[in-house]
Amino acid sequence: AVVSTQSTGKCTWSNKEIEALNKHLLLTSKPVIYLINMGEKEYIKKKGKWLIKIKQYLDENDPGATMIPFSGALEQRLLDDPDNAKTFLEENKTQSNLNKIIVIGFKALGLQYFFTVGADEVRAWTIQKRTNAPQA
User: Fold this and answer.
1) Could you tell me which of 130, 102, 105, 129 has the C-alpha nearest to residue 30?
2) Which of 25, 27, 98, 103 fits a 20 to 30 Å CA distance from 82?
3) Are 64 and 108 in contact (CB under 8 A)?
4) ∠69-72-77 over CA atoms, to 5°?
């Protein structure tokens, strides 16, 4: 029996063990991105009561981990009023982190887009990196 407090993604495994583990699709073997949801005002000020403590905890317990602060309330505000979103962001000297979350998430999971073009449509498919066109 394997007993460890580490996630499976942080352990060293032989090829045979990796093959066996892959059958179980363990979430702990996937990369982790820590999304820190902050209040809108805290996010705009770029200061949060817990932000430094969370960063210190991650540095001690998951060195090199990716941490992305964002504000769900701010993102909702931008979605609810798209006509004034750009002005609001400029006036408050802030930005949405939604694109950053998506890009880093795709990168961490080894994903990319594959585009197909037909006479009447263009489609974007999400595929694993290094997938050949016939398999995509």
Assistant:
1) 105
2) 103
3) no
4) 125
